[in-house]
Amino acid sequence: MTKTTDASAVRSTTPGGIVRVLSVLVIVAGLVMSVAGGATWLTVQRQLADERITVSEDAKWFAGEKIDGPLTAYAEAEVIERHALEASGGRTYAELDREDPTRQVVMTGSFLRASLFTSVVSFGVAALAMGLGLILAIIGYVLLLVSRRLAALTPPATD
């Protein structure tokens, strides 16, 4: 009985081959994360831009600018909070009586702020995914280089 060896099977079971497979998986995962993060960033940015909101003129930063990113969304959320507190005499929604007519204004302000903060968090998660994806792709590339070194150091299998 003769023993035949498939060269690709030998290559994938050597330390260099295992690291090579791992490196490709890590690179692909990194690229997928980077693309998904970028797509999320662009989607949130387009959705905010489609609302055609501008930062209030009395904002500390970005006054009059279009809200289409995390910093402008945060700046507008701060303005909304300030306006709601001014309208309520410094009291929050929970502190207002149910019959107080300003409670509706403060509640609407809270909803708008929450919506803007959700977009800020979404931008942060998207940036995190892109950054981690880039790091994974770099790690995968380094592993690919290591696999080539291991392949060069591993003697060929003999029967």
Q: Can you describe what's shown?
A:
The chain has 159 residues and is mainly alpha-helical. It is built from four helices and no strands. It has helices at 7-13, 15-50, 70-87, 102-153. It is rod-shaped, with a radius of gyration of 27 Å. The two termini are 13 Å apart. The mean pLDDT is 89.
Overall geometric form: rod-shaped
State which percent range the strand residues make up.
under 5%
**Largest beta-sheet details:** none
Average of per-residue pLDDT values: 89
Oligomer: single chain
Instruction: Tell me the radius of gyration.
Output: 27 Å
Q: Helix/strand/pairing class, anyone?
A: mainly alpha
Q: What is the number of beta strands?
A: 0
Distance between the termini: 13 Å
SSE series = HHHH
Number of helices: 4
Low-confidence runs: none
Helix content: over 70%
